[in-house]
Amino acid sequence: MTIDWSRERILILAPHPDDETLGCGGLIRKAKDAGAEVYIQFITVGDTEDNSARGPSTAQERYGEIKEVADFFGWDGWDFAFPGDEYHLKLDVLSRFELSNAIERHSPLSVTTLKPTVVITPHHTSYNQDHQATAEAVHTALRPSDNRFRHHPRLVLAYEEAADQWRQDTAPPPNFFVELTEAQVDAKIEAMHLYGSQAHAHPHTRSDLTLRSLAALRGMHVGVPFAEGYHTLRCLV
């Protein structure tokens, strides 16, 4: 399957700032280089007690990092659905109805408003409760129905992060691969450096070596130097 990314309008759901880069940073660079539209729907952000050399990070600090990453990639838009400490790392107590409705129709970057051709979500087997809640809400928001009355994105994917492997019932291996150049992998890593409050040295799931190693592993699976792996939830060709 060959995709002409220049024709795509991509909506990426990121529970927190940096998830879109960890899961899709290479694809984002590849798609933007081709001329695609890329939008990031963040779900929540708040003050965080990070276990890093930088110490705790504030929501205000994260907003500054987002603006740098948005400029670096050239995103066409980004938005927060539920910002604030009331929701950050607590999306599992938010009703599925409220969260899925925000994704489907109530956010400025909702599926109904944006009408994306591609939607990319976290995988539901993540250990993180916000990732699980987001993934399940996306499944509800994109439920099958009559496409004459509700928009159905042609391609729906779930992205992976290295930390997702920390479960006994981890997801099966990816079944959709996006080939990356070394420059696109480098761009993904550079973008993570812009998320200074979230970047970590090796060994860590967000280290440079982890990101490059996962890209090399997924590339090996399909016979190319580098790739990102995804799980196909819907593919209409």
From TrEMBL:
InterPro entries documented for this protein: GlcNAc_PI_deacetylase-related, LmbE-like_dom_sf
UniProt GO BP: glycoside metabolic process
Molecular function per GO: hydrolase activity, acting on carbon-nitrogen (but not peptide) bonds, in linear amides
Pfam families cross-referenced by the UniProt entry: PIG-L
Keywords, ordered alphabetically: Zinc
Superkingdom of this protein's organism: Bacteria
Name of the protein: LmbE family N-acetylglucosaminyl deacetylase
Taxonomic source organism: Actinorugispora endophytica
